[in-house]
Design goal:
With 252 residues, the chain is an alpha+beta fold. It has nine helices and seven strands, in the order E-H-H-H-E-E-H-E-H-E-E-E-H-H-H-H. It has two domains: 159 residues, 3-Layer(aba) Sandwich (Aminopeptidase), CATH 3.40.630; 64 residues, no CATH class. The strands form two sheets. It has a five-stranded mixed β-sheet, with helices on both faces. The chain has a two-stranded antiparallel sheet with strand order 6-7. A hairpin with a 2-residue loop joins strand 2 and strand 3. Helix 8 crosses helix 9. The relative contact order is 0.12.
Length: 252
């Protein structure tokens, strides 16, 4: 019988523990980049984040002998299930010590949470949707993570496989600097497109970000409609994302 106890996050104290737990997991890891606590709080705030208009989320903490050993979020994304005609419960925000019983207990809790709502498949991690950070890092532990890409200890993959999960898809990230040797080729393609088509290429107008975000949402949703796991951005989600990324934009 497992010594792990799973507790639903119900209090502000529980939420603080949920948000702060990664600092315990990544203690001493020079490549880990901690999230902004205010951003995590906003992401999990049902009243502020537009994701919750079409989704339900429950947070859980794992304890062994009163010692916190892991956390997880159970996620029911109605937009995903309606779009793909699936019955999937997602798990996300996963963090744990290298403890098989903790991993299995957390995943079992999400599975049962999903089953109680009629779900038939468990998939993850997503934080909190396929339009956010998703997947586990498999390679690249020797360098810091990049924005909106996963980072985790190497042992997470082993824990998931021992729990019976198998890979659904590979997610690739490509690193390119301003001095990348292919930059001239990309510029040449853009110029050729400008000459030979009616497509107009321009920079985003950061002073009119709300209108620009709507155009990006239309293009993104149209272009990615047939991709595996795609979930259409809502207007509220795209506006929210645009305002966040605007803080990092490199204006002309």
């Amino acid at each position: 019988m497992s010594d792990i106890q799973i507790k639903k996050v119900t209090t502000k104290r529980d939420l603080r523990r949920f948000i702060r737990f990664p600092w315990k997991v990544y203690e001493g890891d020079p490549n880990w980049v901690p999230p902004l606590i205010m951003d995590v709080k906003e992401k999990l705030n049902e009243k502020k984040h537009p994701f919750f208009k079409h989704a339900e989320v429950e947070l859980f903490l794992a304890y062994r002998d009163d010692r916190l050993t892991g956390r997880i979020a159970a996620i029911l994304d109605n937009s995903h299930n309606d779009y793909h005609k699936e019955k999937v419960v997602f798990f996300g925000m996963y963090e744990s010590l290298d403890d098989f019983e903790t991993a299995r207990s957390l995943l079992d809790r999400v599975s049962r949470w999903g089953q109680s709502r009629g779900m038939e498949v468990i998939r993850g991690p997503v934080n909190l949707s396929m339009n956010d950070e998703c997947a586990f890092l498999l390679e690249g532990f020797d360098s810091p993570p990049v924005i909106m890409m996963a980072y985790n200890p190497p042992y997470y993959i082993d824990l998931m496989e021992k729990c019976g999960l198998s890979k659904a898809k590979d997610l690739y990230a490509f690193f390119m600097t301003r001095e990348h040797k292919e930059k001239d080729k990309v510029r040449a393609i853009a110029e050729k497109t400008r000459r030979e088509t009616k497509i107009n290429l321009r920079k985003v107008d950061l002073k009119n970000i709300e209108e620009e975000a709507e155009k990006i949402r239309f293009i993104y949703n149209s272009a990615w409609a047939e991709n595996w796991g795609f979930v259409p951005w809502t207007d509220g989600e795209m506006q929210h994302m645009a305002k966040k990324l605007k803080q990092l934009a490199d204006p002309p």
